């Protein structure tokens, strides 16, 4: 039992973080790269897709309150991540922090759990990307074969020249007096665009992080500009048409339907649990610690800077979107595009639609990058087979794990429904937040002497709040999501006891270490 709680000595971790040479990752990222890396991961399907579904199904205009609630949870966890990332600047993120503080078994659980966050999260974004592609092409009058744009068995109907999910046009069907059963229909086989986009991004990642980071910086500018264009155009529209927002923002918190999570206060809680997805990504900055030039100073800047910028943008966008369009119409694959269309500003519409693509692309890039780096760290520690950490002789990237992860993510993306993917990502990430927040507190007690370039303020209050809000958000998610999490963790435990425990490198070099 004791050996499973063995922690990786911090001095060893710090020595590893200083390792240079052909077996280490390249140190090329500065503070601006890290903030853009964070924004690259954060702004994605959450804001461009889920904002619509969450306000239509759970919150109405009170999505603004859900954004604030989820933002607080992220702030507390973000402060804890920042302390760890500056203290232990090594690739692997929460996994490494767990190893250093709580012990090997917890490290394994987090590493396994981070697969949900990054891999399943990337799959979810790929589905959002595909939905936007379909909507964009339909705007030009072109329909992709419906069977190749939906998950197995999903129903699509042909209405007003487009193949669409009938649940997203329920209002329009009712208004037109059309029974969806009478429309031409098709069933999905797989989401091919989602599969292909993951394959392309995996290829970019194998070629190398410097190229990826430059590509990322360019695209991040485009997507921040996209959000700002929406905010400016929508705010201007509402200034000139105050009666529209007066109508749409009323009632601000629609009455609960009688079912938990559907509007009212419980709707705000569930909305926060689901829209939390939109914030995921600031923690991915910490997976790039080993590629940062000056991680002690720049990791906290990357994590907290990207989180702060996105929080402000989200609150503004959520409020304005539900102001220009009634929340009842927002259950669509491209709600921000719908919002900008409602303002009648045509150039804005083109910018937002193209920018959404750029936004979703970089999110997938950073999440897959994070995933392969976590595998790299776990393989380095012997908890995963050696091949998962092998670097490419020329590109110096963990190419085998990148390709293996890319393949699995592409499969998830093409076969699983969007709400399953998004809620699973949220619950997995929230669990990692709980463990990281607890870890900061534990380490303050066990090793108060360590030099901490960045200190989480008000310990233990901030970690306790981080843990409390994360658990609360987890509790607001559906039972099915909880069951999936438990099954996933059970599989992880089987692998740990079947393979990792006996192959742990730490056990070999320090049989008695605590
Ligand atoms: N925050 C990321 C997104 O919204 C995961 O796509």
Describe this structure in words.
Helices cover 67% and strands 2% of the residues. Strands 2-1-3 form a three-stranded antiparallel beta sheet, with no helix packed on it. A hairpin with a 2-residue loop joins strand 1 (155-159) and strand 2. The chain is built from 19 helices and three strands. The protein has helices at residues 10-18, 31-42, 45-59, 63-87, 94-101, 104-139, 170-176, 192-207, 209-240, 242-248, 264-275, 295-324, 335-343, 346-380, 399-415, 418-446, 461-475, 479-503, 505-509, and strands at 155-159, 162-164, 185-187. The radius of gyration is 22 Å and the shape is globular. It has two domains: 48-153 and 188-509, Up-down Bundle (Amino acid/polyamine transporter I); 154-181, no CATH class. It is mainly α. Helix 2 (31-42) crosses helix 9 (209-240), helix 9 (209-240) crosses helix 10 and helix 9 (209-240) packs parallel to helix 12. Alanine is lined by residues 42, 44-47, 121, 125, 277-281, 363. Alanine binds at residues 42, 44-47, 121, 125, 277-281, 363.
* H/I helix tally: 19
Mean pLDDT: 85
Classify the helix fraction into a percent range: 55-70%
Distance between the termini: 12 Å
Structural class: mainly alpha
Name the bound molecules.
alanine
Silhouette: globular
By CATH reckoning, the class of the largest domain would read Mainly Alpha
Elements, N to C (H/E):
HHHHHHEEHEHHHHHHHHHHHH
Uncertain spans: none
Largest β-sheet summary? 3 strands, antiparallel
Domains (count): 2
Record field, number of beta strands: 3
**CATH level-two architecture of the largest domain:** Up-down Bundle
């Amino acid at each position: 039992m004791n050996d499973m709680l063995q922690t990786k000595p911090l001095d060893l971790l710090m020595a590893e973080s200083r390792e240079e040479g052909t077996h280490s990752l390249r140190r090329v990222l500065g503070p601006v790269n890290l903030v853009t890396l964070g924004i690259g991961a954060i702004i994605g399907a959450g804001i461009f897709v889920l904002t619509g579904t969450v306000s239509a199904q759970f919150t109405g205009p009170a999505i603004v309150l859900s954004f604030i609630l989820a933002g607080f949870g992220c702030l507390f966890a973000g402060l804890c991540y920042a302390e760890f990332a500056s203290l232990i600047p090594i690739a692997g993120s929460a996994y490494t922090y767990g190893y250093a503080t709580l012990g090997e078994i917890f490290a394994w659980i987090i590493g396994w759990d981070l697969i949900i966050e990054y891999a399943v999260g990337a799959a979810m974004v790929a589905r959002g990307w595909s939905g936007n592609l379909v909507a964009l092409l339909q705007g030009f009058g072109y329909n992709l074969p419906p069977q190749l744009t939906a998950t197995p068995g999903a129903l699509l109907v042909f209405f007003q020249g487009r193949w669409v999910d009938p649940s997203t046009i329920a209002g329009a069907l009712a208004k037109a007096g059309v029974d969806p059963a009478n429309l031409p229909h098709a069933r999905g086989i797989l989401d091919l665009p989602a599969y292909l986009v993951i394959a392309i991004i995996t290829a970019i990642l194998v070629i190398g992080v410097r190229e990826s980071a430059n590509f990322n910086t360019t695209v991040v500018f485009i997507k921040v500009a996209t959000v700002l264009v929406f905010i400016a155009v929508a705010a201007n529209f509402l200034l000139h048409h105050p009666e529209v927002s007066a109508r749409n923002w009323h009632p601000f918190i629609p009455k609960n339907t009688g079912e938990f999570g559907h509007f009212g206060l419980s709707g705000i809680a569930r909305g926060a649990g689901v829209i939390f997805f939109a914030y995921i990504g600031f923690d991915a900055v910490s997976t790039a610690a080993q590629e940062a030039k000056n991680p002690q100073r720049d990791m906290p800047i990357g994590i907290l800077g990207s989180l702060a910028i996105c929080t402000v943008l989200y609150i503004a966008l959520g409020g304005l979107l539900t102001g220009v369009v009634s929340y009842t119409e927002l259950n669509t694959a491209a709600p921000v595009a719908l919002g900008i269309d409602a303002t009648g500003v045509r150039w804005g519409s083109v910018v937002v639609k193209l920018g959404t693509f750029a936004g979703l692309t970089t999110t997938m890039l950073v999440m897959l990058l994070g995933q392969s780096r976590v595998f790299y760290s776990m393989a380095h520690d012997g908890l995963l087979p050696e091949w998962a950490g092998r670097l490419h002789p020329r590109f110096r990237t963990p190419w085998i794990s990148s390709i293996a992860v890319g393949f699995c993510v592409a499969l998830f993306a093409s076969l699983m429904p969007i709400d399953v993917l998004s809620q699973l990502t949220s619950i997995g990430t929230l669990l990692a937040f709980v463990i990281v927040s607890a870890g900061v507190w534990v380490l303050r007690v066990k090793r108060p002497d360590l030099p901490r370039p960045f200190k989480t303020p008000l310990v233990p209050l901030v970690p306790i709040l981080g843990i409390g809000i994360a658990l609360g958000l987890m509790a607001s998610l559906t039972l099915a999501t909880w069951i999936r999490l438990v099954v996933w963790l059970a599989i992880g435990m089987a692998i740990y006891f079947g393979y990792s425990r006996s192959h742990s490198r730490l056990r070999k070099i320090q049989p008695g270490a605590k």
